[in-house]
Amino acid sequence: MLGMREPAPITTAAEETGTPSIQIEDVRLTLASAAGPVNILNGVSLEVARGEALALLGPSGSGKSSLLMVAAGLEAATSGRVSVAGQRLDALNEDQLARFRREHVGIVFQSFHLVPTMTALENVAVPLELLRRSDAFAKAAEALEAVSLKHRLDHYPSQLSGGEQQRVALARAMVHEPEVLFADEPTGNLDGATGAAIVELMFSLRARAGATLFLVTHEQTLAARCDRILHMKDGLIVAEERHR
Amino acid sequence: MSALGLALCYARRELRSGISGFRIFLAALTLGVAAIAGVGSLGQAFLTGLSEQGRTLLGGDVRMARQYQPADEMERAFMAGFGRVTELASLRSMATDARNPERRALIEIKAVDPLYPLVGQMVLEPLMPLGAALDCSTACGAAVEDALLIRLGIKPGDSIRIGDADFVVRARIVTEPDRVVGGFTLGPRVMLSREGLTRAGLVVEGSLINYTYKIAFAGETTPEEFRTAEELAFPEARWEVSDRTNAIPRVTRFVEQATMFLTLIALTALIVGAVGAGQAVEAFLERRRETIATLKAMGAEGGEIFLIYLVQIMAVACIGLVLGLALGAALPFAVEYFFGASIPAPANYAVYPGPLVLAAVFGLLAAAGFAIPPLARAREIAPAGLFRDLVAPSRLRARLSYRAAAFAIFAAIAALSVLLSPYPEFNLGFLVGMAAVLVFLRLAGALVRKVIANLPRQRSQVARLALANLVRPGAPSTSIMVALGLGLTLLATVALLEASVRAEVEDQLPERAPSFFFVDIQKDQVEPFRAEVESFKSASDFTATPMLRGRIVKLNGVPAEDAEIAADSRWAVNGDRGVTYASVPPKDTRVVEGPAWWPADYQGPPLLSFDAELAAGMGLKIGDTLTLNILGRDIEARIFNLRDVDFRTGGINFLNILSPGIIDQAPHSFLATVRADADEEEAMFAGVSRAFPNVTIVRVKETLAQVGEMLAALARGVSVASLITILAGVLVLAGAIAAGHRARLYDAVVLKVLGATRARLGAVYAIEYGLLGTIAGLAALGAGTAASWAVATFVLDIPFVFAARAVAFTIAGGAVGTLVLGLAGGFAALSAKPASRLRNP
Q1: From the CA of A150, how many Å to the nearest CA of chain B?
Q2: Mean pLDDT, residues B769-791
Q3: What percent of chain B shows pLDDT beyond 90?
Q4: Cβ contacts (< 8 Å) between A143 and chain B: which residues?
Q5: Gap between the Cα atoms of B117 and B131, Å rounded
Q6: Within 13 Å, how many C-alpha atoms sit on residue B519's CB side?
Q7: Which single residue of B57, B216, B376, B686 could bond B402 by disulfide (Cβ 3.0 to 4.6 Å)?
Q8: CA distance B11 to B319
Q9: Which of B142-156, B495-509, B785-799, B816-830 is the most confident on average?
Q10: Which of A98, A114, A122 minimises the CB distance to B299?
């Protein structure tokens, strides 16, 4: 059983490992709905060190996926400061955010979100193509080899199993060697064995690349593989666990 | 790789799996482009034919025509100096069966000399030279059109009587090379020799004879050089000169007008189709929402997303363009294959790049114009949507710059259409009308949604579900109403206008119009003629009016061609018009400005009573002068008063009424009208024609029937053309049904699980689509009524008639069409088995 602490307003792991990879200060997120504004994040602050693996753990609706979106530059915070890889995200417009993502971030989704009209190779090449890299396909093939899918290069998502799809998604998220890997419930749509294999792969790829991991999950065992766990509830970080 | 290169690369990947999702988009664009390309190509085929065969159609390089007066010796010598000349005299007269004088018919005589035709070939049956057919060495001969043989019940070899002479019908006319140049005719053609015409005794002073001279140049003279020389040599002769470069301006104008009007209908079809294409793009992008969000999450910028999908859509649009252009280019050949033999005008059926390029430009612009708004919304898709779309369902709005671009494209379509039109004002009016109808239908659609949404909860579950389907988020009811409504509006407008014109021609005019027009009554025949006509019991309202023809040549001393005249008044100076004189105001004269009339015994300098509307168009007022050329002589008359001339009375109306004293001395004939009961018309026709064989009798009823038939044919043509817009509307409807298919299937399965029967679901669809179609029909009827009322009142100047048939047709067409398509689309949903769908949604 992991030990629990009372809510910590700002985590300070960065102090131990150098310049933080992610810095979030008093972030709030309020969204409109038919029933009126909904407060999703209520003043979250945290820091993640370079190369650190951080897990956000919490029940559905606690705001963990929203926090991932804000940190990955997919959603603009209503207020607060967000810095990732040395860039202030809250000052960037939509297209600047897109360029930031293509350069610094890789994302793995629960539902894989592969482009159905592209082959595995083409899907993995997308981030490199967006970076206008001429070696996109060579690198994509290497990345697929690294996830043991060398024999599936020309297969479309519909021709792959769930586990294979998630491995393609992992290759796609890591192919451009991002500084931060965001993963949102990466095993949520997979059976236990397949999920475990994916987790193994994800952690080994991340370790090899030295990327920071920002993992959202509701699985305690998966979270436990990270350096640190933040517990969320009602849009707030309510507890923190350190493993290393 | 550049952004465009990336977009092309991604487009290729996405389109690898086929274009099945673009079927409606393709069909709508193909239809619109094919319509524009087809109409343009066909119009060009006719215009080219008219221009290439101008010499044959005209019967020479130049044609000179004048009424009353043949060319004098000097003029003949002038013409002969340019090449070979043939002289023709044409007039209307009556022909009777020589054996049975009761059988009579109005005919159009063309008396020719031995040189006719200079160009082209006259084909007769039995095959013989024209000279042989018309020869007068024994009895005079005639060549006649089939219609006369049928009307008189005679055959070649029989004799007919024209004026004072008998003619043997030696042949029937198969081809008359310059027939089209003659224009609208009231009776069948009868060809005589000049000798024959003289023997018939129809050439008397003041007879309405048109003398035409056709010249085939011997040297390299151009028509322009000839015109210049003619104007220099005979500045006062007032010849009407036309040449091979525009042999039949009337037909050329008709082809241009028809092409323009049909192009506008085709453009309407393209716009309706493009509404469907836009809808298809919207549906396509909706299906790509997740991919777009994924690409954005991976770092694709909004502009890159826009470009990636714009390239895809324009690539598919290009396929539609090519298909449409191919179909359009093929239309002239199809027309030649199916109808070539029955088309009187010459045509050069070929592929014309001009209209195809224009259609391609219109197609590309329309595709881009309707694709940009959904694409601009797609570029705003937030990557966060991959995680959530429930708390804050995204209502995407295109950026202002994209909306402005779409607006600029539509403005470019309108500007291009107006600038290239031979009648820009009409074109602009049509486009403004179409835009107004589009706005009206959109507003009507929004209003209907609002009303339905605010209706109290229905007790019937079927009605409640049907109404809910019409207003649920994403329901395509407004776009269906717009697309279907626009086509139906066009159809309703045409139907209502046809009804109004028909009512005017077939009901109103005959009520006011006389039964007969009698032409070419000689001065000394007027009184005996009156006695003959009035000997019939039902004869009433007999009038006999002196009749001359004259042309307005100067306005306040300024030559008519240099004077500033409004476009809608130009026709009055373009040729000969009727002129009369009167010492007292004719019956029903309505003087609107100036003194009532000149003194009955006035014998001073010529005074003129003129049409008030034309005076306004020509900038003339009382006291100004107008010079009329009558019988080769210029007569300057001072405008004494202005009258309201209403041609719709169907009776005798003259633009120009002169004071007596000058032209009453000139040789002229009289024009008479009379009313008679229908059952006495036949006897009056026979009696008059027997007693006065030189008088031409025009039966108003027959002429109006002929005009009515022409109008009906025209309306049928326009209606058929309008159907293409309905077809485009149907495509939009089909597209909307296809786009909503998944949601409908899901609803049907859920309702079936809860116990709904197929009959109940079918009833829901029937109410939903029947109601939508009826509302679209009603809205179209409203817009069509307004449009046809405006055209009838302000353009045609006839009373507007509301025709129930048009009403029924429009509403029923809208309702039934929508219902049938809706039910057909819903059939799959009705027959879906819940279990299989729930297992594999």
Answers
A1: 20
A2: 88
A3: 26
A4: none
A5: 11
A6: 19
A7: B376
A8: 14
A9: B142-156
A10: A98
Contacts with B386 from chain A: Cβ below 8 Å: 74, 109, 111, 113
Please name the residue that has the structure tokens 């319509």: B35
Q: What is the pLDDT of residue B111?
A: 95
Q: What's the pLDDT at A5?
A: 37
pLDDT tens by residue, A176-232: 999 999 999 898 878 878 888 889 989 988 888 899 999 999 888 899 999 999 999
Task: Looking at the complex, report in whole angstroms how far the Cα of residue A20 sits from the nearest Cα belonging to chain B.
Answer: 22
**Structure tokens that stand for B543 in this block:** 């009038």
Give 3-state DSSP helix, strand, coil % of chain B, rounded to 5: 55, 15, 25
CB count, 10 Å around CB of A12? Answer: 11
| DSSP 8-state symbol, B158 | B
What are the CA-CA distances from residue B802 to residues B124, B216, B710, B794 (Å)?
49, 53, 21, 16
pLDDT, tens digit, 9 for 90 and up, residues B700-711: 777 777 777 777
How many CB pairs (< 8 A) connect A and B?
87
DSSP string of chain A, one letter each residue: --------SS--HHHHHSSEEEEEEEEEEEE--TTS-EEEEEEEEEEEETT-EEEEE--TTSSHHHHHHHHTTSS--SEEEEEETTEEGGG--HHHHHHHHHHHEEEE-TT----TTS-HHHHHHHHHHHTT-TTHHHHHHHHHHHTT-GGGTT--GGGS-HHHHHHHHHHHHHTT--SEEEEESTTTTS-HHHHHHHHHHHHHHHHHHT-EEEEEES-HHHHTTSSEEEEEETTEEEEEEE--
B102 touches chain A (CB under 8 A): no
Measured distance CA(B159)–CA(B366) in Å, rounded: 64
Q: For residues B644 and A46, which has the higher predicted lDDT (pLDDT)?
A: A46
DSSP strand pairing (A228-233 vs A53-57) = parallel
Tokens matching residue A14: 């960065």
How far is B460 from chain A, CA to nearest CA, in Å?
Answer: 28
Residue B401 contacts A where some CB pair is shorter than 8 Å? no
Partnered with residue A108 across adjacent β-strands are: A183
| Structural domains in chain A plus CATH codes | 13-242 (3.40.50.300)
Does position B389 have pLDDT exceeding 60, yes or no? no
Closest residue, chain B, to A135 (C-alpha): B1
Query: Taking the CB of residue B71, how many other CB atoms lie within 10 A of it?
Result: 19
Structure confidence at residue A12 (pLDDT): 42
Indicate yes or no: CB of B388 within 8 angstroms of CB of A65.
Answer: yes
> Mean pLDDT throughout B770-798?
86
Residue A225: phi and psi, rounded to 5, are -80, -10
- Whether B294 has its CB under 8 Å from any CB of chain A: the answer is yes
Q: Helix or strand or coil: residue B563?
A: coil
**Amino acid, single-letter form, for residue B229:** A
Q: Mind spelling out the 3-state secondary structure of B488-541? A: HHHHHHHHHHHHHHHHHHHHHHHHHCCCEEEEEECHHHHHHHHHHHHCCCCCEE
Distance CA B200, CA B93 (A): 10
Q: Which residues of B touch A113 (CB under 8 A)?
A: 290, 293-294, 297, 386
Mean of per-residue pLDDT scores for chain B: 85
Q: Work out whether strand B577-581 and strand B656-658 pair parallel, antiparallel, or are unpaired.
A: parallel
Buried b (16+ CB within 10 A) or exposed e, B783-800: bbbbbbbebbeeeeebeb
Diameter over CA atoms, chain B: 104
